[in-house]
Each structure stands twice: as C-alpha cells, then as structure tokens.
Amino acid sequence: MISDLKERSFATRIFLSPCSWASTPLQSRNLQPGSQGITDNLGVYGNTQDLLTYLKSVNHNVCLVAIDFAGLTTRSEDITKSVQTNASLKKLQLKLLPC
C-alpha cells in the first residue's frame, strides 16, 4: 500500500497513524509508546505527531494528501484548526486511489 501511494500520488513524504481512531483529535494521535516502531518498519517518515512537527518546521508550501476523509479525520474542526495553525499547509487534497 505504501509503495502504491508513493508511485500513484507522487508523494514525497508519507506519514501514517497506526495506533489511533479517525475520531481522535489530530493533536492527540500517536502519543502512545510503540507507534514509532511501526512507522520505522514500514519505511515512512513518521506518524501524526511527526507530521505536525514537520508542518511547523518548514518554510515552504505543503500540500497534504489523504487517501480519504475518514482516513485523515472524522472531525471537521481538526481540518480547520490544522490549516489555521500551520502556515505551511496551503492545500489539502482528498483522493481515492484506484486499486
């Protein structure tokens, strides 16, 4: 799945949220110990906390691509807050990649 995402979406950095529900606020995801080991084994850039750190650290525009809305969050206020608090986040795309 990760290699398909890299090839089909031309994503340069992939973050995932292996140990949380879509209803969990983005700021609260992946705070449990052990989730970092999962992301290390899958060859991605990190989890949700790593994504939030990345968004705050860069000074260029970022386009966040999610496989589907529920894969990102089921809380629309999380989307609004993320855009408001991360100046680098300029575009959000929700995509369904064909199988």
TrEMBL record:
Q: What is this protein called?
A: Uncharacterized protein
What species does this protein belong to? Mucor saturninus
